[in-house]
Amino acid sequence: MPIQANGRELKNKMSTSPQVEFVSKGTYHGKHGVRVMQHRRQGGTHSIREITVKTLLGLNTRKEYVNSDNSDVIPTDSQKNTVYALAKAKGITTPEQFALDLCQHFMGKYNQVQWAEITVEDAPWRRIVDQSGKEHAHAFIQTQEAKRYCVVKQERKGLPIVWAGLSDMRILKTTQSGFAGYFQDEYTSLPETDDRIVCSNIESKWRYSNIVGVDFDKTWELCKVAILDEFAGPPDIGRFSASIQEILYQCTQRMMKKVAEVDQVELDMPNIHYVFADLKKIGMENTGEIIMPTSDPYGIIRVAVSRTHSTPNSL
């Protein structure tokens, strides 16, 4: 049997514990991976919207950690059930609006909640279309050019801050890209080029300075198309880019021009390398037709810009 420490020993042990303070933004509890589908019937025509939700709640007390007092803790199971309840009561129109509804609910119902952060990811369902172009009334297929998500955070006595975003948008162009004039030293082995294949798996998010009257579906599509248009250029001739950095910056410019409510953009464009396969060892010449896709290592290139003198606000 282990020897039980007496009260004096416990007190001495506690007195020697390190002095710490809680990091507010890093202390929370929540629920991850809450999946819900809304299915509606309008006569013979059905509609669906499926999302995955993550809830995070930061409380204004730490007694559950230091005093073994759980009286202010909103169980993660309750948070999960709240997602289902609000989907029934409010409906799911857009990921952004549903996240706003959840923030408003948690902040309004629980006085002990200091801040709430809601992430919503949209499942890319669309109607099946027959050969004549007619959409099916109740059959759907998942097609994904990019994952759509949003992050909404609200602090007590503050306005909600809305970020929308996309990820896993894999894009490639076979020419009209170069990379030259970079800093070189004894560790440089990369040859300069004015014609290369560029491939990336894009991730981007953008913050709204104002959400009043914003059509979140439309603005998300506008931002996605802005990235694609800038990357590709005109359909017949494309557009030359001297670096991925240049592409990134021009994408942010186009996104902000298209959507006036966007006041900050963060854009990641990893450089996934496609290289010429070495066919000499099998007695063949590769004139550029046979390309070897690689996965690792890859370059990490990122830009973050905001409008000058911009102050985010919301509802």
TrEMBL record:
Keyword annotations of the record: Oxidoreductase, Peroxisome, Purine metabolism
Gene3D superfamilies: Urate Oxidase
Chain residues that bind urate: 76-77, 179, 196, 245, 271
Residues bound to O2: 76, 271
Subcellular localization, as worded in the UniProt entry: Peroxisome
EC category: oxidoreductase
Entry's family note: Belongs to the uricase family.
Protein name as catalogued: Uricase
UniProt organism field: Patiria miniata
